[in-house]
Amino acid sequence: ATPCAAEGMGLVHEIDVLIGPDAESFADCVIRLYRDQPLWERLRQGGLENIERHFSYRVARATLECLLAEVSA
Question: Long-range contact list for 53-62, CB < 8 A, 24+ apart?
């Protein structure tokens, strides 16, 4: 991903995603990911965990319940 694409998503380089700040490093990240199956699997799992942690139905529901509780208080 580019830094702009990863911004605000809680993504961590080498944990959930590879981040390339310029065209050359972005291309290097893509090639590295294509060639390294264990890295692909680790980032795939990290990405899924990131989605569950930040963007899941459970998280959205808890956030909405909290906001509605503040409004009704």
Answer: 53/10, 54/9, 54/10
pLDDT at 55: 93
CB atoms within 10 A of CB 25: 13
Alpha helices in the chain (DSSP H): 3-6, 23-35, 37-55, 57-72
Asked if residue 20 lies in contact with residue 28, where contact means CB atoms within 8 angstroms, the answer is yes
Q: Which of 64, 66, 52, 39 is nearest to 10 (CA)?
A: 52
Q: Can you list the residues of the chain whose pLDDT is less than 50?
A: none
Are 55 and 16 in contact, with CB atoms under 8 Å apart?
no
pLDDT of residue 72: 87
